[in-house]
Amino acid sequence: MSDLATPNVIRRADYAPPAFLIDTVALEFDLAPERTIVKSTLRVRRNPAAAHASHLELMGEQLEFVGASLDGQPLANVRAHEHGLTVENVPDAFELTLTGACNPAANTTLSGLYVSSGNFFTQCEAEGFRRITWFLDRPDVMATYTVTLRADKAAYPVLLSNGNLVDTGDLPDGRHFARWEDPFRKPSYLFALVAGKLVALEERITTGSGREKLLQVWVEPHDLDKTRHAMDSLIHAIHWDEKRFGLELDLDRFMIVAVSDFNMGAMENKGLNIFNTKYVLANPETATDTDFANIEAVVGHEYFHNWTGNRVTCRDWFQLSLKEGLTVFRDQEFSADMSGGDQDEAARATKRIEDVRVLRQMQFAEDAGPMAHPVRPESYVEINNFYTMTVYEKGSEVVRMYQTLFGRDGFRKGMDLYFARHDGQAVTCDDFRHALADANGRDLAQFERWYSQAGTPRVSVTTSYDEAQRRYVVTVAQGYGDASPAARETQKGPLLIPFAIGLIGPDGADLPLRLEGEADAHGTTRVLEVTGALQTFTFVDVPVKPLPSLLRNFSAPVIVEYDYSNDELAFLLAHDSDPFNRWEAGQRLATRELLTLATRAAEGRPLELDDAVVDAFRRVLTDETLSPSFRELALMLPSETYLAEQMAESDPAAVHAARQFVRRRLAHALKADWLAVYERHVTPGEYEATPVAAGHRALKNLALSYLAELDDPADAVRLATAQYDAANNMTDRSAALSALLGAAASTGGDFVQRPLQDFYERFEKEPLVIDKWFALQATQRGGAGRPVIDTVRALMAHPAFNLKNPNRARSLVFSFCGANPAQFHAADGSGYAFWAEQVLALDALNPQVAARLARMLELWRRFTPKLREQMHAALKQVAAGVKSRDVREIVEKALA
């Protein structure tokens, strides 16, 4: 590999079509853990759209060359080297056969072909296929594949690959084979194979056109009882895509396979999706409500890729959001429809709130740091580092804006045209934009800037009301504020921002909206198209001075600046008809108070909370007209990470002190209400993984977490202990254990030790549950003289911990570094020293996972001077010892 060399920067502007194309691929695998032999036969021809090249250059990494032939004759003019293989003086069209070997058992990177729990798996996106065989490993080279797998039948009774199974049989010496054909052209990153001792849950369904399809969820035998929800989610996704977008499953079968060693959540390989077990396995005893929801979303996401990613794929990796942003949008819409259908806007809003919380906490932070990049990046060193929140989550918001501008019907028209034009092709983000524009008769040239400009836009709003003229003027200015240097380099001009607005009268009712120049009022929510740096919109026939409800349903991924008073925010929290903005008002109110308190805490001044804030929380808590799931989200304070990022100089200790003060204040002031809510929202009887039941559990367990903040948490300990002992589901059991850990942090009590030990012993053979056990301890608050870093270091030596497994590493190391800011950012720098150790340890095993961990210090310049100095030292330590280009790109950008 080239990891030790100084890597070249790859630029979008340098794209050139491949000199050769590959029409068909025939792969033969003789599978053995230490030495798998791979024979590939390629039908190659010159690309008439590319510059002439006399030599064929193929990519390859960590491969042993065995032999080659061209048009059936042994090939002498072939040279295998560190980065691939060169065939000199090739004709215009030819058949090339290459034989090589790889070592799956030694592949700890989990990229390419590797062994996990004695079974074979592959992960080829983005550049893993070149670790299997030499190839033009780029997404714009699309071919049809025939794959023959051969292996020991007793050790590997199941042999799977993409497409349709066309032949099987026994071979001498106890071996057997399976042959698969995929009739659809695909790039190499969508290739997959699986071999091992697996069993399947099977279902047959009939699609809208009357075709029967076989669905399979493959797992290790002891996990078969945890596959029903994944299968149901797949069936729902197939039917939803037919109904919403007219897209039907095209293969005779569709397979999902679960593996415990996997760098990502899942992979959409054509017809053979390989999943992290975390997003497949679920039953009430082992999976939380969040797990059930995530499985539904990820199964949907990977299935939806069958069209948005597989049938139409990306020309190059700069276009990654073409498939990922679009498919995230599709899975978000799917989840919203599963929870609320087309009509239940409150239920849909709950999903919207959850998605925006993730965007603002993680993607906005990315926009503010050294890794800031546009949705369509202009350059990269290591493509694995660009599977980012910007590409996925901001990319999905860009797609959502098309639907906001054109409506569901207009968006569907654009999607239909996109597939009509580009089915079977590798295309660009511009091709998608042109399809939406042409289908709706619009010029979207300005909208292109959403793909090419980095940073989070800021929209500043001022208003004025002329009572005599009954005119309400809204002035909107857009810009980027204090954007990071990485973002500023990309910013060229104003964006087209769909800005949804409503006006609320003093009685709390929405006013009908009529813009100047219109004959009549149209609705109570209007989408204003903001296209200039400064723009004015005038509403007429406004009978009273209204309060604006801005950016309804979060109609664009921007930060809104408007000078609401606390009373106005409380009014919106009580009355706004837009559920998202109702939640947003509460979050703004809480954020404002928490940041004021954090400043006081940093200065050593006493902390006080306005009674009006407590009253606002009480109104939400006791309002039975609001759904439990909405109340749970509205009563959840902004995270410490998000709050620290809002400070001019991030001070995690001060933020933690402020947030804990507010939680304790709300716990004491609303104790009777928390207790009443807890009792009212118990869900007796058999567990149901429905959005309604999950909402009741979420609100009940939030109440329990607040009660655990009391100075005397006896009630919380009693309730949590009883809940833990009686729980018939993982949601309630883990929430009870979390509450006990919280109460123990305040009191130093040992009442948490018995359930903590019981939890481990009860689920010792369930890896995903033990991940939760590690994560609960890594994210606990800690107490005086009991830093959590000591617990984490002790757990690193636990027999169940294994740094090589990405899920286990994430459960302990990532949870501590990323989800426990007050403890990670300890004043003594112990958290940073731990971070540096683990980044370097992971870098030697799995650079992709190491790079994810490395990013946790990229905003180091925004912290207080002492923390900044210690983070800088930790980054320098990693920079001095790193070996992979994955991690090197991250730390060098952070230090630059």
Automatic annotation (TrEMBL):
InterPro entries: Aminopeptidase_N-like_N, Aminopeptidase_N-like_N_sf, PepN_Ig-like_sf, Peptidase_M1, Peptidase_M1_dom, Peptidase_M1_pepN, Peptidase_M1_pepN_C, Peptidase_M1_pepN_C_sf. Residues 455-563 form the Peptidase M1 alanyl aminopeptidase Ig-like fold domain. Keywords: Aminopeptidase, Hydrolase, Metal-binding, Metalloprotease, Protease, Zinc. Residues 230-450 form the Peptidase M1 membrane alanine aminopeptidase domain. Residues 107-190 form the Aminopeptidase N-like N-terminal domain. It catalyses: Release of an N-terminal amino acid, Xaa-|-Yaa- from a peptide, amide or arylamide. Xaa is preferably Ala, but may be most amino acids including Pro (slow action). When a terminal hydrophobic residue is followed by a prolyl residue, the two may be released as an intact Xaa-Pro dipeptide. Gene3D superfamilies: 2.60.40.1840, 3.30.2010.30, Neutral Protease Domain 2, Peptidase M1, alanyl aminopeptidase, C-terminal domain, tricorn interacting facor f3 domain. GO terms for biological process: proteolysis. Its cofactor is Zn(2+). It is an enzyme of class 3 (hydrolase). Transmembrane segments: none annotated. Its EC number is 3.4.11.2. Residues 567-896 form the Peptidase M1 alanyl aminopeptidase C-terminal domain. One of its GO terms (molecular function) is zinc ion binding. It holds the Pfam family Peptidase_M1_N. Coiled coil: none annotated. Belongs to the peptidase M1 family. Aminopeptidase N is involved in the degradation of intracellular peptides generated by protein breakdown during normal growth as well as in response to nutrient starvation. This is Aminopeptidase N. It comes from Paraburkholderia caballeronis. The lineage of its organism: Bacteria, Pseudomonadati, Pseudomonadota, Betaproteobacteria, Burkholderiales.
